[in-house]
Specification:
Elements lengths: L2 H20 L1 H12 L3 E9 L2 E9 L2 E9 L4 E8 L5 E4 L25 E7 L5 E7 L14 E5 L22 E9 L3 H26 L1
Antiparallel strand pairs: 1-2, 1-9, 2-3, 3-7, 4-6, 4-8, 8-9
Length: 214
């Protein structure tokens, strides 16, 4: 092998290591991706109705996107319950998640359970497709709902204003049709690997350019 060729190979090897491990641009890309991370979770519901709800925490709110099938047309109470225990079906999820010991209310009320999410609306086919943005539901911190459960009820939630004996505790929303435990939907590892792939993809490109210049 000619000395010039050896010099090129050694130089490219050193520069490639620099790009992959030390390159400030690559580090900035990795840091930027980490800053844009969003915590995500999912609940898969089972029972008389079936579906799933995904949770995405971004800033000071959580967005819930769901599709639930097998409902009767109309409104159905929709809540986060205290326990993620479904060993006895939805009955073992206990009551609405209420870490601040408040009364049941509407999602926009100041006096409401953290788990009070109002109603979802099923169409004539019995399918409810919905998007809910809420500032009380959290996926991080001391009041995180991870490991708790989502429950959909047979009747409309009266939002604490129906005057029934259970209006201020359950919203008089009837029986529990379906429920599911809220579990982590991890994306951090995928985003990290994406940053490293992007970094690695710079190596052959820069190597090619340097090879032509040397």
């Amino acid at each position: 092998m000619k000395p010039s060729t050896v010099f090129r190979v050694c130089t490219l090897g050193i520069l490639s290591i620099f790009v992959f491990f030390i390159n400030p641009t690559a580090c900035y890309i990795k840091s930027s991706v980490e800053q844009r991370q969003e915590r995500r979770a999912i609940a898969v519901l089972f029972g008389a109705a079936r579906g799933n709800v995904t949770f995405t925490e971004s800033g000071n709110k959580v967005r819930m996107i769901g599709v639930i099938e097998g409902l009767s047309p109309g409104q159905h109470g929709f809540h986060i319950h205290e326990k993620g225990d479904v060993s006895m079906g939805c009955a073992s999820t206990l009551g609405h998640y209420n870490p601040h010991n408040k009364q049941h209310g509407a999602p926009q009320d100041a006096n409401r359970h953290a788990g009070d999410l109002g109603n979802i609306l099923a169409d004539e086919r019995g399918v409810a497709s919905f998007v809910i943005n809420d500032h009380h539901v959290r996926l991080t911190g001391p009041t995180s709902v991870l490991g708790r459960s989502v429950v959909v009820h047979s009747d409309p939630d009266d939002l604490g204003k129906g005057g029934h004996p259970d209006s201020l505790t359950t919203g008089h929303a009837g029986s529990r049709l379906a429920c599911g435990v809220i579990g982590t939907l991890e994306t951090a590892s995928m985003m990290h690997s994406g940053a490293w792939v992007l970094k690695a993809s710079l190596v052959p490109l820069i190597s090619l350019l340097l090879f032509n210049l040397l």
